[in-house]
Please model this.
Amino acid sequence: HDCGGGGMSLGDVDRSDDSLGNETETTTTSTTTTTGTGTECQPWRVSVGSGVSEMAEGTPDEKPIVVVHLDGFSRLELNTAYIHEVGSDQQIAGREVYWSVDRSTFIAKCSDLNAWGIFSKADSDEVASGECSARLATSPPGELVDSERLLQHWGEQLFGNSVPRPGSGVQRIGKTTTARFATSTTTTSTTTTTTTTLADPHVVTSDNHGVRSVAIILGAFLASGGFLCCG
Model:
């Protein structure tokens, strides 16, 4: 399948739901082509159920990545996938940090609350120092990645107030052996365009209670004209 085509503005994220409740997300560094919306063209997606996955087999140079999908907020930019590289030394309040795919926002544990918060990238230094007042949304008490339940019913900060968002927060969690940010460049007579796409070739997912697991072992490689997906 040829997965090229389309255009986006700087920093946009393409989010579209298919019949299985999946999301596709493509970030661009300038106006450029985007990938297709099918699973064969977005092999990194968690595409079955809403739970915690098991780790897929991968090559030795692949790094484990946890993918957490959030939804249910009025700020659409918060409704996206957040990733954490297992073993990363970046921590806040002694806990791991999850960055959105376009790295505009991140999730971190608030040291002054028994809760997780979503923050703008611009506030990263402030949050690292222990100041969480600039949070965009706040979780209830609990673990962000929990094999028993999904951390939902967050509060969204609007005009200085925390607005309850029933059902908001973690919608599904996945693990993969790598998160590849593949880059392609297209040059015309007047502009040079660069496309950055997250593509995970190995994903295994299961439902929230681990009753069943579905393996999705897909390959993707970068061609000069975009992604050619095999399947």
Remarks:
- Confidence is low (pLDDT under 50) at residues 1-58, 200-231.
- The longest strand covers residues 161-176.
- The CA atoms of residues 186 and 193 lie 5 Å apart.
- The radius of gyration is 18 Å.
